[in-house]
Design goal:
With about 300 residues, this protein is of the alpha+beta class. The chain contains six helices and 17 strands. Mean pLDDT is about 85; it is low at about 1-10 and about 45-60.
Length: about 300
């Protein structure tokens, strides 16, 4: 009897050792699963960060961000092959694009200057404004969105315009236009004096209001040279900040197989040759207000216009 009892006692340590080894094995498995979970979460976070960076995957394919709103760019230029669009118009050697592409710079216009010129847009658009999401102010022709139509603000408001704008406003407008013109000339290797300001050149104010007329539908893909035959070089000066002042509203170059976007930043100038090598669109603004100026240039002196003057 005593011998049987002793045998039972001697088996218990073996059971305890087996139980201990099973528990250790389970603990190691749990630890392994924990590390796998951590590794998965870390890799997911890294992937999300990378996708949010310079290349994003969207329903339309890959989207590359050419200029983030948080970075200050001295210069960025991407050369692309010229389209044949320029061949169907009179060529001006030393000006008509032979080198094509798109450039971005935050170095030629300060944020303070952008704020000053934005106030010109705000003052002018306070006179009218579209019922839909996109309002236009053209200091050259006087065209101003008003409800569902356009009016010539110089005729419609008369002397009131002189109380709203100052000579300094128009001087600043001209000064910034000259800097942009010189930057385009330098980048594309042409003479600044061979470029002429052309129409339409205008302020735009875009918000998330529903479109009321086709003039409010700013988001359609288009080619400037096709829409406006006089355009050879197009520039945009942004007067508000993506994410801070509005969401959506990014500028999108629609290249084959990829979209390449510019995120607006006050003082940022985006410029490009106007042919179908630079097919583009603007995303719909989801909230807030996006201000910009489109300043366009031609090589044809017959299509040139002068800077706006207050004494119209």
């Amino acid at each position: 009897g005593g011998g049987g009892g002793g045998g039972g006692e001697s088996r218990r340590p073996h059971r305890r050792r087996r139980l201990s080894s099973v528990m250790k094995g389970n603990s190691r498995k749990e630890s392994c699963w924990t590390w796998l979970k951590v590794a998965f979460l870390l890799s997911s976070a890294v992937l999300a960060y990378l996708l949010r960076g310079s290349s994003l995957f969207s329903e339309e394919g890959v989207t590359e961000v050419l200029a983030h709103h948080r970075e200050s760019l001295k210069d960025r230029f991407i050369e692309v092959s010229c389209s044949e669009d320029y061949d169907s118009h009179k060529r001006f050697e030393g000006c008509t694009p032979r080198k094509c592409g798109r450039g971005i710079t935050d170095a030629i216009i300060s944020r303070a200057e952008a704020e000053r010129i934005r106030r010109i847009a705000e003052k002018g658009l306070a006179l009218g404004g579209s019922d839909g999401g996109a309002s236009i102010l053209d200091l050259h022709s006087g065209a101003l969105s008003l409800g569902k139509h356009f009016v010539n603000m110089y005729r419609y408001f008369g002397d009131k315009v002189h109380n709203i704008f100052s000579e300094e406003d128009f001087y600043l407008y001209s000064e910034l236009r000259q800097r942009i013109q010189q930057k385009i000339a330098l980048t594309f290797g042409i003479s600044s004096s061979s470029l002429y300001l052309t129409k339409p050149t205008f302020f735009s104010r875009i918000n998330s209001s529903e479109a009321k007329t086709t003039h409010d539908e700013y988001w359609h893909p288009h080619i400037d040279k096709v829409t406006y035959g006089s355009f050879d070089y197009t520039s945009l000066l942004y007067l508000s900040d993506y994410v801070e002042d509005f969401d959506g509203g990014r500028f999108v170059f629609m290249d084959e197989g990829a979209n390449r976007t510019v995120e607006p930043r006050a003082g940022r100038v985006s410029f490009f040759t106007s042919g179908s090598e630079n097919l583009h669109r603007v995303e719909k603004v989801r909230w807030g207000t996006r201000y910009a100026i489109t300043i366009s240039f031609t090589c044809n002196p017959d299509h040139g216009i002068g800077d706006p003057v207050l004494t119209q």
